[in-house]
Design brief:
44% of the residues lie in helices and 20% in strands. The chain has 745 residues and is of the alpha/beta class. The strands form six sheets. Strands 17, 18, 19, 20, 21, 22, 23, 24 and 25 form a nine-stranded mixed beta sheet that branches. Strands 1, 2, 3, 4, 5, 13 and 14 form a seven-stranded mixed beta sheet that branches. A three-stranded antiparallel beta sheet has the order 9-10-11, with no helix packed on it. Helix 13 runs antiparallel to helix 14. It is rod-shaped, with a radius of gyration of 50 Å.
Length: 745
């Protein structure tokens, strides 16, 4: 079993797929609640906040106005709490002087107001018993109660969720009438609507006189302290009580019975929304709505409370408006953290919810959002697992950017249509998958490059290795037919040379000989095929394509001879014998690739043209020259670099094993370094050779002999003098084609 597991993970691609699927499984498991992650939840909240900010409409609802107990009001009237008579005056003026439609109080009058006048009156009665029992002047609580019962005013109270600190008996004040609900309590009580432990409401001197009330606390603040959702209802002792915005909206409609959209699924009841007088508000299972943000702080119209008291605004400024009485003063601590601002007045949150009810502008996170998210993660994750390993870094990054943009676009499209779908999980999956596959693709590509570099580094120059690593598609290790140029070289008389050297020193001498020769080949983009004792085999045109392979091969041959000249100078200075080297170069179609057995492979060339290159190297001994190349190589030279080399035609031959004749040439030098003598030697020789090929052996003999008077050490001219003398004595057949057949390799 362990061996099977080890074999399974031995493949980089298998490991890449396995970890990729683990990433998908991890995110899917988080979404369905197997291992909830606070980090992902925070990212989801952040993405929600960014969507809120990017889609703020800044369209003000003119029907909702905030009368603000601001710093200026507190400075001019006095610190809060104000006398109840002052509050009563403020409310009275809102209805009588400004004709508002409804007022919601975002403040609590939790304790009866201390009546200093009544206390003083009782002290006075103790001295004058004949005085009436109570003064004829009403108290502040009485004045406020009269206003509350005379106008449509919705009061506020506070629910507390912490039973460990408070008991039921610690609740203070009296609650307003509960909501009327069409569904039986036995049904909605199974829904996880928040259930508080205590409440704080208005005192008994005030609360009985209001027509409705709503709480202003939020038990569902996210763990990062940000207000994003607020429950519309909480249940207390078998009754439902609405939030302050819901209570105001409920009162505006005449307090109709509420319908709760409760559905059964998976053996449980789920709350999906609330219908108030035909207005449907989608909720989460806890009965909470997402706050419909319209703008940043001060989006709604604010009027200072002191301005109402002094009658500053025009009489029609608030006619028919819905008013929220609350505070933005920092000292009263009604400031909250929200997606649209870190310091946001609580009263404006109520205004936003109320405006959302009036405009039916709530966003909704549907119950099926988890199913959509899980399905999307599975499909996207599997597709990325299958295709990301095949992509290059630029392609992977580009496709990831496109996928991210598409995911965000579709999510915003759903948002604009009222649906809130998870965003961060998809982005996180994409980031994880792209990062993982980029890392693994880079690692696999680096490993492949190292393998290529190791494989070819012994045969070709480092510059070519870098090219192959940079463009792996340009080389193919599999056997293929290509037109290449092959070179064979061999040291003349190496056996006698090595006999004069101690065996222990021979290895050093070989390294001194082959190292500069190899450098010369590499310097001209050649690939070393193999070393065969003192012989070297190389080729041009693979593994990287080289359209000038013949030119580079001849330059490499000249460089090898120059390197040998420098080596001979060193050898002679050490008292060693100078050596000579013959080189044969031939171009043609050859089979190139990794060849060998399961035990050992080699990147090499095979084919008849390879053998012919070897034959040319052998012919250098027959003609006494350093470098021979074929007519095939000449054809490429004439096409690409006709003036680059000085060469002369040597012969038309049939080599052993072939019947087709081949014209061979001696490479004398490059045009750049050739002397006038070398150019003249080539011209004189080819003129004599022309006479020979025309069967004019007497004239040819004279011309070769004249050639030898200037270049007496030309072995090829000497060879042709002997051939001419032989043919003068024994003329060839009349159909003689000038081809010389070599019967030995």
């Amino acid at each position: 079993m362990r061996k099977a597991i080890k074999h399974f993970f031995s493949s980089a691609k298998t490991l890449q797929w396995f970890v990729s699927l683990l990433l998908v499984a991890g995110l899917v498991g988080e979404q369905i609640g197997l291992w909830p992650s606070q980090v992902l939840q925070r990212l989801e909240w952040l993405s929600y906040d960014e969507r809120v900010l990017s889609r703020l409409s800044y369209e003000q609802d003119p029907s909702v106005v905030i009368v603000d107990l601001d710093e200026r009001s507190l400075q001019q009237v006095g610190q809060w709490p104000w006398p109840r008579a002052q509050v009563a005056t403020l409310l009275f003026q809102l209805f009588e002087d400004y004709d508002v439609q409804l007022v919601g109080l975002d403040v609590i009058f939790a304790e009866p107001e201390s009546n200093l006048l009544a206390t003083q009156w009782q002290q006075l009665r103790s001295q004058f018993p004949n005085l009436p029992e109570t003064p004829s002047i009403a108290s502040g609580d009485q004045l406020l109660a009269e206003v509350l019962m005379s106008y449509p005013i919705v009061s506020a109270f506070f629910f507390d969720q912490q039973p460990q600190q408070h008991s039921l008996s610690s609740s203070t004040g009296a609650l307003p009438p509960p909501l009327m609900v069409n569904q039986p309590a036995e049904q909605w009580q199974q829904v996880p609507i928040p259930t508080p432990a205590r409440f704080t409401s208005n005192s008994d001197a005030v609360q009985p006189y209001v027509m409705a009330g709503g709480y202003f606390d939020n038990p569902l603040v996210d763990s990062d302290g940000v207000f994003r959702r607020v429950p519309l209802m909480q249940q207390w002792q078998g009754e439902l009580y609405g939030s302050l915005p819901l209570a105001m909206f409920y009162t505006l409609l005449g307090q109709p019975p509420i319908d709760m959209a409760i559905f059964s699924g998976g053996g449980q009841l789920h709350l999906e929304g609330v219908d108030v007088g035909g207005f449907y508000f989608p909720t989460d299972p806890n009965g909470a709505v997402l706050v419909p943000w319209f703008g940043e702080r001060n989006h709604f119209s604010y009027i200072s409370a002191v301005d109402i008291l002094t009658g500053t605004p025009p009489a029609d400024a608030l006619a028919g408006k819905i008013v929220l009485l609350g505070t933005s003063a920092p000292g009263l601590m009604d400031l909250r953290s929200t997606p649209v601002g870190g310091v946001f007045p609580g009263v404006e949150i109520h205004a936003s919810i109320l405006a959302g009810m009036l405009q039916m502008a709530f966003k909704h996170e549907p119950g099926y959002s988890i199913a959509i998210t899980v399905l999307g993660l599975l499909i996207a994750g599997i597709l990325m697992t299958l295709f990301f390993p095949k992509l290059r870094a630029a392609q992977l990054i580009s496709i990831s950017v496109v996928i991210a943009a598409l995911h965000i676009h579709l999510n915003l499209y759903a948002w604009d249509n009222g649906l809130v779908l998870p965003l961060a999980s998809g982005i996180l999956l994409l980031v994880f998958m792209a990062g993982w596959h980029l890392t693994m693709n880079f690692w696999r590509e680096s490993s492949a490059k190292r393998q290529v570099a190791e494989q070819f580094g012994r045969y070709i120059p480092p510059e070519l290795v870098q090219d192959i690593v940079a463009h792996p598609e340009a080389q193919d290790m599999q056997g293929q037919e290509k037109e290449l140029t092959v070179l064979f070289s061999d040291i003349r008389g190496f056996t006698s040379f090595s006999e004069k050297i101690p065996p222990a020193e021979l290895t050093t001498v070989m390294n001194r000989l082959l190292t500069p020769v190899t450098k010369a080949i590499h310097a001209h983009q050649g690939t070393i095929d193999k070393y065969m004792g003192d012989a070297v085999m190389a080729f041009w045109g693979a593994p990287l394509p080289d359209h000038a392979h013949a030119v580079h091969a001849l330059n490499g041959a000249l460089a090898m001879q120059q390197a040998l000249s420098r080596i001979n100078e060193e050898f002679q200075s050490e008292g060693k014998q100078a050596i000579a080297m013959g080189i044969g170069v031939h171009s043609g179609v050859m089979n190139v690739g990794n060849m060998g057995s399961e035990f050992r492979m080699a990147y090499t060339v095979l084919g008849d043209n390879v053998n012919l290159g070897s034959r040319l190297e052998g012919l250098t001994k027959n003609y006494g020259v350093k470098i021979l190349f074929s007519e095939n190589t000449l054809a490429q030279i004439q096409q690409l670099a006709p003036e680059q080399f000085i060469y002369r035609k040597i012969d038309r031959v049939r080599v052993k094993g072939r019947t087709t004749p081949l014209t061979i040439f001696e490479l004398m030098n490059s045009s750049e370094h050739a002397s006038a003598q070398e150019k003249a030697q080539c011209a004189r020789f080819e003129k004599a050779l022309s006479s020979y090929e025309d069967s004019n052996f007497n004239a040819a003999l004279e011309q070769f002999q004249a050639h030898l008077t200037e270049w007496p050490n030309d072995p090829v001219a000497q060879l042709y003098c002997g051939r001419c003398e032989n043919y003068i004595d024994s003329p060839p057949p009349t159909d003689w084609d000038g081809v010389f057949t070599h019967k030995e390799k």
